[in-house]
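Lecture 7 notes: from sequence to structure.

We start with a single chain of 185 residues. Read the sequence below before looking at the structure.
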Amino acid sequence: MLPRRAVLGMAATAVLFAGVASHANATQTILIGGGAEGDLHTQAASHICRLVNEHLGDEYGCLARSAPGTVFKIRAVEIGLMEFGLARSDRAREAVIGSGAWEGSPAANLRSVLMLAPEPVLLVTSANVAENLVHDVVRTVFENLGSLREAHTALRGLDPSSMLDGLTAPLHPGAARYYRDRGWL
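Now the structure, written as C-alpha cells:
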C-alpha cells in the first residue's frame, strides 16, 4: 500500500497538471491553486494569473487550477506541486502550529503572501519559492488592485492596509520586500 503522502502527491499532480498548456514566451510556469469551480478562491486565482500573464508574461506563465480544499492546497504548496494556493486563514494557522490536519507535523515552510480581506482568504506559498517570483506577483497584484476588486463581489472591498492584517503564516521574504518598499512594514 502506498503511503498517504505519496497518494496525495500523485493526486495533486493529476489535478494540477491536467490540461496544462505550454507558455511559449514564459521562462517559468507557475501554478496557483484555487477552490471549487466558480468559488471565490478559484476566481481570485484565475484573476491573479490573468494579471501575471498580462504584465509578466515574458517571464512567467501563470495557470490557475481548481483544487479540492485548503488542506490539499497547503500540502501541494509544501511539497512543491504548486507555487501558490488560496487558503482559509484559520487552516493556514493550523498548518503553521501543527494542529488539526497537521497534528504533530507543522508546515514549517508555509509562508503568507497577502490576505484577500475582508474575506479570510490567504494567498500562501512555500519558503522555497524564489523571492523575486513572490515579489513580482505581489507587486503585480497591488499595481492592478482595481482589476482584482472587479473579479468577485467579495473582493470589492480590498484595501491595501487590510491585506496585511490577519496573516496566519510567516511572511515570505519576497512579499516582505515589496511591503517594506511601499512603507507598509
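The CA atoms of residues 22 and 29 lie 8 Å apart. Keep this in mind for problem set 3.
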